[in-house]
Each structure stands twice: as C-alpha cells, then as structure tokens.
C-alpha cells in the first residue's frame, strides 16, 4: 500500500546578487558551473534516495524555489522534473512551479523552462517603480519586470506575482495604484508580502543605524487592509494571509501542501521536508551550504542532516501555525494534542471577539483574526 500523496520542494540557492532584505538560504552566483553541475547531480541522487524512504506515492506538486532557480540551466530543471515524475506517480494535474526573477536575460529562457515541464511561474516583481526597486537592491527595473510578466503570461499556463509592500515612505494611495498596475500584468495569483526586517540582513543593520525607517505599525496595518480591499474588489480572494487567487484553480497547490500539513520531500541546500514514515511525522533539514550538501549526499545518499520524528505536541503546534494562515483553517481533530476544541475557553473567548469563526469542526481565523495572527497563535499555542 502506498503512503499519503506528497509535494516536492527543490532549493536552488544561487542569486545574481543578494538583496538587502533577504534571509533565505542564498549564495552569490559566481558562475562556478562545475559546483552547480555537482549540485544538480546531488539533488538527483537525493531524490532517488528519498524515494526509497517514502516508497511509492502520488506526487501533486513540484516547487523549484530559491534563491533564483530561473538562473539554472533549463535542461537541468527538466532533468529534475523528469526524475521526480518517474520516481513518484505524477497527479494528472501535477503543478510544477519555478521561482523567477524578472530580468531580460532570464525572461529569454522562460520558454525553455516551459518546455522542460514548468507549468507555473512565480515571478518576483516586488515593486513597480524604479526608485523602490533600487532601494530594495533589485537588479531589474520596473519596465523590465513588466516585460518579464508579459513574456511569462504567454509562456506558462499559470502565473503568480510576488510584491513587497510596507516599504519605507509608501502611502496607501501609492500602494493602491501599484496594486492596480500589478493586477493588469495578467497573473491569476498575487502574493503581496509585507516587508519584514529580518535579523542579520543589511536592512536590519540600516534600521539599527537609523538610515532605514519602516512604516509605523498602524500604517502597515492600513496597507494590509488596502491590499485585502483592492484585491478582493478585483476578484483576487485571500485564501491565505499573503496569497490571493482568482478562482480555486489558481491557488498554489504546493503551498497548500504546507498549510494543510501534508507530506513533502525537501531536496537541495537547506531544504526542509515533512514526511509521514511508519505512522510518525518526520521533519528533515538539509545541509545549508552547497558544498556540504553535495558532500553529505555523496556520503549518506540523502542531503538531510537532521531527521527528527515530531512529538504529537510539536506536530499539533505546526498545524496550528500553518493552518490558521488559510481561510479553511485546521480541523480540531488535528489539534487534539493542544487540547483545542470549540469549547476550550480561549477558543470560545476569541470566537466571541470575532477573531475565530464559529465552526464546530475546524479552527478558523476570521479576516480580523488573520490581521493579528501572531497574537492569536500566541494565545492558542499555550
Ligand atoms: C525567496 S524569494 C525567491 C524569489 C526570487 N529570487 C526573487 O527574489 O524574486 C521569495 C519571495 O519572498 C519575498 N521576500 C523575501 N524576503 C522578504 C522580506 N524580508 N520581506 C518580505 N518579503 C520577502 C519576496 O517577495 C520574494 O519574491
Ligand atoms: S530576494 Fe530573491 S534574488 Fe534576492 S537574495 Fe532573496 S532569493 Fe535571491
């Protein structure tokens, strides 16, 4: 008998330049083709070794993320996709997403990625004015991003666009106009992320020096509300805190794997995985540096350096944190280890306040609740 269906996340860690706000597992692309070729081969070996662990499973999504996987040789992306499709059983509507940066050089290769089996592009537009892009340290201008979106809309059946808001100096009026412009780019999925100042980044250091001033909390909250209103008015429904889709089919099947607590294989430097093995949910994490990852695969077959079975409490906490992000919430049955039921005093109190929806089967945050998600999860996790 085969185990539960799974998604696959593959991390490609190289970037042309490192953005000052980013704390993902990224490395400057110094054009070391031999190392990159070795990394691609290590990822292929890792996939085969993890297939031996999972046994036969249905595969519902592949996500090539980064870093900047659009810098990868499209033939290599094709090899990874082909390998995954043959190791597991691809769903008829298998979603294959590639994260891409919108430079002219990368847009010229979108068609080759589509040919390689990518059917959804997640494009990092971030902003639609040159001044903001420069301050975000991006290596593309607004016109370049507009051209890339047009090329992507023609090359792929599905397109998602990432934006960053709550940038220093941004007004609700300017953000409203920028959102309208982003909508016109032709994507059926938009992910506007509020700028987070991550510890250890160049932006973090600039905030400490006083040379970068993020908007105050109330303005950031207003910008979040503007986002919900403008996108909802244009038919982009907020099915998750920062993810909006025009219609159910446009939702990210891969990200829903995370938010619904389903299984996924993680491969590539620093990738995380969650696998149900012999009835227990395992958390895996790969070596972060490309050279370490390659060496670990050569030594042990797999790329992960940790493989921990989660306790029922840890698994339930994860379900709470990810499940409350989506409007569908999380079944109470999956939160039993936390003692959460509709009758739990904290749940009942938050329901009275209109932050949790009255639902006997699922714990669901209301739109007001999702505005203060950290507060909600803080009160429910203890
Ligand atoms: C890991 S990046 C990969 C995408 C691609 N390399 C790019 O930069 O366009 C995924 C997305 O995370 C978002 N992101 C990264 N750091 C962020 C931060 N500090 N605050 C808000 N959003 C962030 C950006 O919108 C970005 O498109
Ligand atoms: S935001 Fe994207 S391009 Fe910039 S460093 Fe992070 S992963 Fe790389």
Describe what you observe in this structure.
The structure is a single chain. The two termini are 38 Å apart. This protein has helices at residues 33-54, 74-87, 104-107, 110-115, 130-135, 142-155, 172-183, 202-209, 217-233, 253-259, 290-300, 312-323, 345-352, 367-371, 373-380; strands at 6-12, 14-15, 27-28, 58-66, 89-100, 120-126, 158-165, 189-194, 237-240, 243-245, 263-267, 272-277, 280-286, 304-309, 330-331, 362-363. It is 40% helix and 23% strand. The protein is built from 15 helices and 16 strands. The mean pLDDT is 97. With 382 residues, the chain is of the alpha/beta class. The chain has a nine-stranded mixed sheet, with helices on both faces. It has a three-stranded antiparallel sheet with strand order 12-13-14. A two-stranded parallel sheet has the order 2-3. It has two domains: 6-257, Aldolase class I (TIM Barrel, Alpha-Beta Barrel), CATH 3.20.20; 327-380, no CATH class. Bound molecules: S-adenosylmethionine and iron/sulfur cluster (SF4).
Order of strands in the sheet with most strands: 9-10-8-7-6-5-4-1-11
State the separation between the terminal residues, measured CA to CA: 38 Å
Overall tally of structural domains: 2
- Helix share, percent: 40-55%
Uncertain runs are none
CATH arch. level architecture of the largest domain: Alpha-Beta Barrel
What gross morphology would you assign? globular
Bound molecules: S-adenosylmethionine, iron/sulfur cluster
Percent of residues in β-strands: 15-25%
Number of strands: 16
CATH top-level class of the largest domain:
Alpha Beta
């Amino acid at each position: 008998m085969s185990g539960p269906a799974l998604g696959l996340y593959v991390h490609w860690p190289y970037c042309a330049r490192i953005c000052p706000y980013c704390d993902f597992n990224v490395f400057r692309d110094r054009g070391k083709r031999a190392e990159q070729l070795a990394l691609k081969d290590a990822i292929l070996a890792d996939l085969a070794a993890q297939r031996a662990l999972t046994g036969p499973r249905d595969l519902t999504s592949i996500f090539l993320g980064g870093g900047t996987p659009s810098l990868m040789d499209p033939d290599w992306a094709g090899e990874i996709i082909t390998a995954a499709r043959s190791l597991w059983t691809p769903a008829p509507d298998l979603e294959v997403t590639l994260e891409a940066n919108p430079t002219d050089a990368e847009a010229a290769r979108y068609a080759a990625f589509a040919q390689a089996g990518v059917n959804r592009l997640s494009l990092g537009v971030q902003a639609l004015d040159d001044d903001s892009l420069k301050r975000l340290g991006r290596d593309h201008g607004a016109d370049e991003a507009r051209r890339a979106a047009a090329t992507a809309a023609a090359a792929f059946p599905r397109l998602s666009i990432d934006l960053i808001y709550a940038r220093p100096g941004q007004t609700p009026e300017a953000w409203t106009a920028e959102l309208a412009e982003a909508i016109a780019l032709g994507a059926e999925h938009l992910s506007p992320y509020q700028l987070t100042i991550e510890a250890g980044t160049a932006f973090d250091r600039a905030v400490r020096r006083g040379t970068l001033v993020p908007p105050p909390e109330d303005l950031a909250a207003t910008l979040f509300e503007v986002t919900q209103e403008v996108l909802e008015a244009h038919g982009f429904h907020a099915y998750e805190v920062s993810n909006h889709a025009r219609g159910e089919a446009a939702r990210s099947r891969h990200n829903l794997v995370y938010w619904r607590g389903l299984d996924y294989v993680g491969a590539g430097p620093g990738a995380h995985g969650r696998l149900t093995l012999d009835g227990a949910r395992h958390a895996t994490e790969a070596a972060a540096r490309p050279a370490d990852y390659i060496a670990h695969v050569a030594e042990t077959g797999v790329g992960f350096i940790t493989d921990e079975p989660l306790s029922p409490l840890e698994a339930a906490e994860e379900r709470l944190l990810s499940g409350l992000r989506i409007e569908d919430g999380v079944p109470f049955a999956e939160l039993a280890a936390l003692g959460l039921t509709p009758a739990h005093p904290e749940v009942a109190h938050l329901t009275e306040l209109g932050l949790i929806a009255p639902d006997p089967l699922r714990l669901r945050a209301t739109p007001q609740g999702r505005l203060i998600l950290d507060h909600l999860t803080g009160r429910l996790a203890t």
